[in-house]
Amino acid sequence: MKETIGTSGLIFNEPLLWEQGQKGRCALSIAPGDVAASPLDDSLVGEPPAFPDLSEIEVVRHYTRLSQWNFGVDSGMYPLGSCTMKYNPKTNERQASLPGFASAHPLLPQELSQGALQMTYELEQLLKEVTGMDAISLQPSAGAQGELAGMLIFHAYHKSKGERRTKIIIPDTAHGTNPASAALCGYKPVPVKSNEQGVLSAETVAAVMDEDTAGIMVTNPNTLGLFEDHIREIAAIVHDKGGLVYADGANMNAVMGIVSMGDIGVDVLHLNLHKTFSTPHGGGGPGSGPVCVKAHLAPFLPVPRVIKTNDGYALDEDHPESIGKLHAFYGNFGITLRAYSYILSMGPYLKKVSQLAVLNANYIKEQLKGTLHLPYDRPCMHECVFSDKIQQEYKVSTLDMAKRLMDYGFHPPTIYFPLVVPGAFMVEPTETETRETLDGFIDSVKAIAAEAREQPERLHAAPEHAKVNRLDETEAARNPCLAGCPTDRTKEYIKG
Ligand SMILES: *Cc1c(COP(=O)(O)O)cnc(C)c1O
Question: Which terminus of the chain is more exposed, N or C, with fewer CB under 10 A?
Fold first, then answer.
């Protein structure tokens, strides 16, 4: 096997800043002033907070070292399925931080915000072209909020027809946020099963679709990484009974320039700009989940909407049937800006992005099937789902293999999701990895599978090289220590 990047780096222990500070240290020195000091009235200010005193280099080293404890797309392959952890070109960061955009104040009058409004308007036009939908709002700040917006639009549509439907059909291959969003909106999710091919069949939908059902939420491509190829028939069945079709488009990275969602019967769709369109994500930072609709649902979109007028661009609040406002101002502007920059810089190559994402996933699927069990052996989209069925014989689980991958220098894939595959091991390589990196990943998984046969105990103890080894899977969630657990010395410092 070729040498992989592995992880045996230089990782320092790092005390808290409170433990490093020494009274009187200072990060910068300012020449003494020639103006007489006029001390603040202490009674107005109160006791100053007991911040540690540190020199500049202590602060720089502290945060640089902490950043090395983390794994990101900029440090190595991050094959986390359903997340599209691809490399985001740095130019898009640069455009988003141009002072004219980064310093634009959201309360500036519209006349002084023409550039920002124009960008927003034009991004909507570009996304309409990518999705085949007719109208878009960039307001929702995450995929799940886009779904909620979609469900509110379903409700507003049925209400406008004088109807009050109560149920939503959701297949077992939908993303977990789908039933949650439907339920949050007051709908009762009706679960349906995918077939042996891992997709939804028209008969299954026909059997449950009725006039009390508001519609269906389909993740397409679904969470098995498979395209829902009966979507047109399914849409016809749902429309026939007066329902609407929602497509979760967070997996759009597989089908850009290839599938027009608007042409296959989808009424509402959300995108994840922070997956497909160049925003680094994973740490829970700001995201963007635009909600896209066909023309008949445009009146229900969130307000304000950006419109083009005779002399520029404006925000339009005048949509009496709108579901209202979902986010302050106009969504997470910096994220939409990155998407705009990404789409303009990629141009017609967006299609190539999807083709390469699909090619890479199929390459991994073909290379690793046999090493890992492949429950649905058919061409996949942007991700492929294996299981630990073969390794179970040696009492090695998906969790053990995922942990061991860290020693080989890779972020673990998504594990135990989707739920339809027991012991799921879900890999999404994305289009931005090189052939050499993909081969390194494949070789590593093969080496781990050999270890599973020969020395399973080693996998049970993995990772070996990480800063910490097997962590308690639930302790951090049950007993979080958000401020850093204070040591005796810290407590003393804070007190004194
Ligand atoms: C990530 C994802 C979501 C949720 O998006 P958030 O921005 O995390 O709320 C929904 N559906 C699918 C298929 C996803 O992959």
Answer: C
